[in-house]
Write a structure and sequence with these properties.
disordered N terminus; seven-stranded mixed sheet; 13 strands; alpha/beta
């Protein structure tokens, strides 16, 4: 290799390095303007961040909000790679059940304006983002699910008060309406099937969601409740592997199901299909007279520990929970606001009633072990395996993974 050629290669490498450095730094600063990079999901949240960013920039001429697509379900793992490398976000969205993992990994810090934010947001969001007595992240929306019902197939007065009533009503409906079902749900998702374990205050990982000595999935109340879940097979006789959220959505959207457990995220879908529907709390479990308890979730914006502009990022996050921005987010995404604010929705009352009986998904790192195990246990129980054995196995497997 000639000296001239070698010098040319060295120069080329140097130019590439300079270019990369410029591109990376341009995400942080551009012509004296501070760039705040925000990770969020597509299909609605992206449009909200972009619109909120434009509104924020009008009053903060020294700030530029830059949206980057990283889905909220993937951000907790992606930040571990991109944050230390200096190419991560200043602010990122993640579900609250990732909170313990994010804290343990040292990628987020408690919010500085905790009292102000805690007073502003709804209780379920505050609880969901509180860990060891400190609040982390700015909640941009809440969620839970409830019982959707097709008003042309079942009236509000006919809605079952408990699960046994639901089974009885569906047996009659199914026999009289060929090609339609009285009830559908995604039976292989622990996110939904957890409701059957919650009678008499039984809660995943205990009353506070932090007890890792037991999952509380195999208690007496959980076993009784999951037997009720298994009995639903009488009126929804389909193998678990052939049921998922997608085909349940399709059946309800096509007017082929009278009742369906889902969330606010499906409202626009069903409205577009012309379905006349309502939203009500879930039926009660045996031995209780209140709706079954559902998981509640909180989507939060977390300031990255690796941000060069944490104060500016936190200020934009706080802007996202202002009344104007919460109304805007609802208009775009149709999800539940994280603060008390009036929105134009005839369905919100049903969700708010169910929210009274919901509990935040535990946010301890042990939740990483819950999902696959509970999904599998739910499928096996639905397909006829012994309830108590499946729940004992789920409990021991999750605790084993924790240890």
């Amino acid at each position: 290799m000639t000296k001239k050629l070698l010098a040319g290669i060295v120069l080329l490498i140097a130019l590439i390095a300079v270019t990369v450095k410029i591109e990376l730094s341009s995400d942080k600063e551009a012509d004296g303007v501070t760039v705040i990079t925000v990770w969020e999901s597509l299909n609605g949240p992206d449009k909200f961040i972009e619109a909120a960013g434009r509104a924020y920039e009008q009053d903060h001429p020294g700030i530029k909000i830059r949206f980057v697509n990283v889905e909220s379900g993937a951000s907790a793992s992606q930040i571990l790679l991109d944050g230390p490398a200096g190419v991560g976000p200043d602010l990122f969205a993640a579900p609250h059940d990732k909170l313990g993992e994010l804290i343990n990994e040292g990628v987020i810090t408690p919010i500085e304006d905790e009292e102000e934010v805690a007073d502003k947001v709804i209780t379920s969001c505050k609880t969901a983002l509180t860990y060891n007595g400190r609040m982390y992240g700015y909640p941009v929306c809440g969620e839970t699910y409830a019982l959707f019902y097709n008003k042309e197939l079942i009236s509000e007065e006919e809605l079952p008060k408990d699960w046994n009533e639901l089974i009885s009503w569906c047996k009659m409906f199914n026999s009289e309406n060929k090609g339609k079902r009285g009830f559908v749900m995604s039976v292989g998702e622990g996110y939904y099937t957890i409701i059957f374990t919650t009678a008499n205050g039984n809660r995943l990982f205990g009353p506070t969601g932090t007890d890792t000595t037991s999952t509380y999935l195999n208690t007496y109340d959980a076993v009784v409740g999951m037997k009720v879940f298994q009995n639903l097979r009488e009126i929804y006789d389909v193998q678990a592997d052939d049921i998922n959220g997608g085909n349940c959505d399709s059946e309800f959207a096509a007017g082929k199901a009278a009742m369906y457990i889902t969330g606010l995220w499906n409202v626009a879908n069903f409205e577009e299909r012309g379905i006349k529907f309502g939203v009500a709390p879930l039926p009660a479990l045996p031995g209780t007279d209140t709706p079954s308890a559902s998981f509640s979730g909180t989507r939060a914006m977390f300031v990255s520990e690796f941000s060069d502009h944490p104060k500016e990022a936190a200020d934009f996050a706080k802007f996202l929970i202002s009344p104007e921005m919460q109304k805007l987010r609802f208009d775009i995404t149709k999800v539940m606001p994280s603060i008390s604010v009036d929105v134009d929705s005839q369905y919100m009352e049903g969700f708010l009633k169910q929210l009274e009986y919901s509990f935040p998904m535990p946010s301890i790192p042990a939740m990483n072990s819950f999902w696959d195990v509970m999904n599998n246990a739910s499928k096996n129980i639905w397909n006829g395996l012994d309830v108590e054995n499946e729940l004992n196995t789920a409990n021991s497997t999750i605790l084993g993974n924790i240890n």
